[in-house]
Amino acid sequence: MNIISEFHTIATDLDGTLLNQDAILTDFTKKVLQKAIDSKIQLIIATGRRFASVLNYSKQFQGTVQVASSNGQILRLSPCEKRVREHYLPEFLVRTVVQKGKNFGLSPLLHVDEYEEGIDMVTEIPLKHPNFMNYANGKKDRSIQLDNCLDYNLNKVTIVCWLNHDKQRLKEFDKLLKAEIGTKCSQNVITTIPRVGPCMDVIQKDISKWSAIQEFLKINGKSEKGVIAFGDEANDMEMIKNAGFGVALKNATDELKSVAKCVSNYSNQEDGVAKTLVELGIVTCT
Q1: What is the dihedral angle through the alpha carbons of 256, 246, 69, 203, rounded to the nearest 10 degrees?
Q2: Which residues contact 103 (CB under 8 A, 6 or more apart)?
Q3: Hey, CA dihedral for 212, 263, 193, 10, is it positive or negative?
Q4: Can you name the residues that pair with 46 across neighbouring β-strands?
Q5: Which terminus of the chain is more exposed, N or C, with fewer CB under 10 A?
Q6: Separation of alpha carbons 137 and 117, rounded Å
Q7: Which DSSP symbol is given to 265?
Q8: pLDDT score of 1
Q9: What is the band of 4 on the pLDDT scale with cuts at 50, 70, 90?
Q10: Nearest to 114 by CA among 59, 175, 51
Q11: What b/e string do you get for 26-59 counting C-beta neighbours within 10 Å, with b at 16 or more?
Q12: Last residue of a domain, which of 179, 204, 229?
């Protein structure tokens, strides 16, 4: 199948998709995506990570990379760091969700949009805790630990995150939130993060990786049909389902595979994104 001319944009998740199990962007993957950029194909990294955490990867490419961070809540460009769009959870909702989580026995972790001030996360989880260190990719310089997150300014919160080794516990909390506060203003997404484990994000209603991609497409005058998207987890669902050609990697969840137009023969550990692009003829690699 030769579909070289059909796609103008590559949209990809980061952890579990573009990165291998050691959170490394391999030389082969960099080579293939750089060829795509050089041929005027846009690259969008759509991830649950904070923008500062993406830069180490996006800056490995020459040219502009569009970044939809915090599950699409914040849009910026790399390497210029230009802000494109932002969405914040209502303060009353953050306070309600955080308190209910604390009452449920969970420790909150807030994503905050204070990039220029050097702050990405505010949490009650000890910064030296292995689970937090893995989540923060071994860095704690852009994070603040508080006894009570509700004492912080909550006007720029993009995600309320909960980490717990027991995924069933997070599913129970998800049901509680839906029952007690509904789904009018927010949505809950449960995923499993490599090296971290189960995670639940509370994010803005109707704002996602896919809505961020749509915004980039609108700015650039491009169609949704020309997007090939790659993912592995639940927070990639809308992106994979609605892109012109949604690809679930071999290591993706069964649910994601069920809505994908294609299931890759390769996992993230096998350069799945790059090899699929080459096999489909979207990027040539010699």
Answers
A1: -40
A2: none
A3: negative
A4: 68
A5: C
A6: 20
A7: S
A8: 38
A9: very low
A10: 51
A11: beebeebbbbbbeeebbbbbbbbbbbbbbbebbe
A12: 204
Domain with residue 56: its CATH number is 3.40.50.1000
Q: Per residue in 216-236, pLDDT tens?
A: 999 999 999 999 999 999 999
Tell me if 31 sits within 8 A of 39, measured CB to CB. Answer: no
Confidence of residue 5 (pLDDT cuts 50, 70, 90): low
Give the contacts of 106 (CB within 8 A, at least 6 positions apart): 162, 164, 169, 173
CA distance linking residue 56 with residue 260, whole number of Å: 29
Is beta strand 74-78 parallel, antiparallel or unpaired with respect to 83-86? antiparallel
What is the C-alpha separation between 35 and 207, in angstroms, rounded?
A: 31
The domain boundary, picked from 204, 222, 237, lies at: 204
Residue 134 backbone zone (phi > 0: left; psi -120 to 50: alpha; other: beta): alpha
pLDDT in tens, 250-271: 999 999 999 999 999 999 999 9
State the DSSP H helix or E strand holding residue 186, giving kind and residue range, or none if neither: strand 186-193
C-alpha 248/C-alpha 161 separation (Å) is 24
Q: Looking at the structure, tell me whether residues 65 and 157 fall in a common domain.
A: no
Which tokens go with 66?
A: 């569009």
Q: With bands split at pLDDT 50, 70 and 90, how would you rate the model's confidence at 3?
A: very low
pLDDT digits (tens, 9 = 90+) for 140-190: 999 999 999 999 999 999 999 999 999 999 999 999 999 999 888 899 999
Higher pLDDT, 285 or 81: 81
What values do phi and psi take at 125, rounded to 5? -75, 130
Residue-range definition of the domain harbouring residue 81: 4-86+207-279
CA distance 9 to 146: 41
